[in-house]
Design brief:
Elements (H helix, E strand, L loop, with lengths): L1 H7 L1 H13 L5 E5 L4 H17 L4 E7 L4 H4 L1 E6 L8 E6 L21 H8 L4 E5 L1 H15 L5 H19 L6 E3 L9 H8 L10 H12 L1
Helix pairs in contact: 1-3, 2-3, 6-7
This protein binds pyridoxal-5'-phosphate.
Pyridoxal-5'-phosphate binds next to helix 3.
Length: 220
């Protein structure tokens, strides 16, 4: 809901001030998206700077490829809840009855997305990428070795995007300041890391048929 994002923008407002203290400004802002609240929190103040103060920061949302709401979903009216009791709202959705196949980043498994984030993606002001879980765990472990913090599986998605964006910049011979929001730690789900390190995590196929069926059910 938009008021939740408004509340969360304290993240981006503080980050703007903190970066101001260091004299830095991000070229890219990256965040993971479940419903969109932590992402909106960090991204919307920077988007405001783009629109009002002629800044040119790239804003990127990241999601799991098994729950690809922004990258493969439909921009249409749907219920916000799974049983269909809320008013219908226009958002990117995979259908309110869609349940993603088992992924460890459970917080990114919501069928829809915040209305304001959906509208901004539709308007082309926010980009979106999706990743399967194995490469995101690899990026999470890289981060843990580098920073001594084990990130939540949700966060590993944006870390993967951040690593890729840094490598893309390196290849292009450019220097980019990339900001991402470390919105949670992974200490409650260490068994997921254990499974990854044991080579037991499989990257399932994109659930196209399940999504088509769930989307068809919206209009029915
Ligand atoms: C650590 C973490 N990050 C991100 C999310 C995604 O939610 P949202 O997109 O609403 O911020 C969750 C949701 O549970 C979470 O636990």
């Amino acid at each position: 809901m938009n008021h939740v994002l408004l509340h969360q923008t304290v993240i981006g407002q503080e980050t703007l001030q903190q970066m101001g203290l260091t004299g830095e400004y991000p070229d890219v802002v990256v965040g993971c998206v479940g419903g969109g609240s932590n992402f909106g929190g960090i991204a919307l103040p920077f988007l405001r700077e783009n629109l009002k103060n002629s800044r040119n920061t790239r804003i990127m949302a990241v999601e799991p490829s098994l729950c690809p709401t922004l990258t493969k979903g439909f921009f249409t009216y749907d219920f916000a809840d799974t049983v269909g009791t809320t008013p219908m709202m226009k958002m990117y959705t995979l259908g309110h009855s869609f349940v993603p196949p088992g992924i460890h980043a459970g917080g990114l498994g919501y069928h829809g997305d915040s209305l304001i984030i959906s509208a901004l993606v539709d308007a082309g002001l926010i980009e979106a990428r999706a990743y399967p879980q194995n490469p995101t765990f690899e990026a999470g472990i890289l981060f843990a070795w580098a920073e001594g913090i084990i990130p939540a599986q949700e966060v590993t998605h944006e870390i993967k995007a951040t690593v890729d964006l840094a490598l893309e910049a390196k290849e292009a011979g450019e220097q980019k300041k990339i900001l991402f929001n470390l919105c949670g730690h992974g200490y409650f789900d260490l068994s997921a890391y254990e499974q990854y390190l044991a080579g037991e995590l499989v990257d399932l196929e994109y659930p196209e048929e399940a999504i088509e069926e769930a989307v068809a059910r919206i209009t029915r």
